[in-house]
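== Polypeptide entry ==
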Amino acid sequence: MSNSRKAKTTEEIQAERERYAARKNLEGRYKQRFTIAKEGKAAFNRRDFRMMIYRYSEYLQIMADTFEVPSIYELKPSFFDEKKDLAELLIISQIYWELAKVYDGSKKSRENLELCLKQFVRFTVGMQFQGLNSEVIRKELKRKKFHNKDLFLKSLEGIYKEASGCYIATYFEADKHTLSTLRHFKNKTLNAHALGQKCIFYYYELSPDLIEFFKRYPTLERRLHKPVQYILKTIAQFLSFLGYGP
């Protein structure tokens, strides 16, 4: 019995040593995380995408190990102090964004692309730099041809959904059936075709500016509120009549 206890105690001591070594190793890696992120950015700029993915993944893995989550795609903004860690939150969002752009170039990486865009949206919504990141997508969609444009549009939509007054129909308080019909038409019909995707893009492109215009002229907005509601409802009814309703 004594030998068994002694062996167990030795195992416990060894386990403690291993945990201590792992903790010290993680502390060292954590201190180097910004250097690793900079190396990833430098690799991205020189179009060394293999090294860029390696370094950015290494940075994200350090964060995942620090917060004890099993995957780099399970990091959450709630793990951070939004005020104190604002710069790091921005870095993380940009890392996911740049990874997404690289993964878009590979047909075999669509799953990683989706996960990175999901994380990009997660680390954008509600942040002080939300407007900056949404502008990044808008400008990229203008000048670059993405292989998976539908996923990038979906990400832009995800950000705009959380922003106050970004949808015209929502801003003018359209009823639930109208909103549901218009959203269904957009997702199931427009998004299925290249021309429809362009329509969606221009809708996202123009809507924020239009909403800001109405905010500057509240009297005009009040006068147009009911007419716009009526127009939106009529469009929704017409779409339902044609079989495009939910």
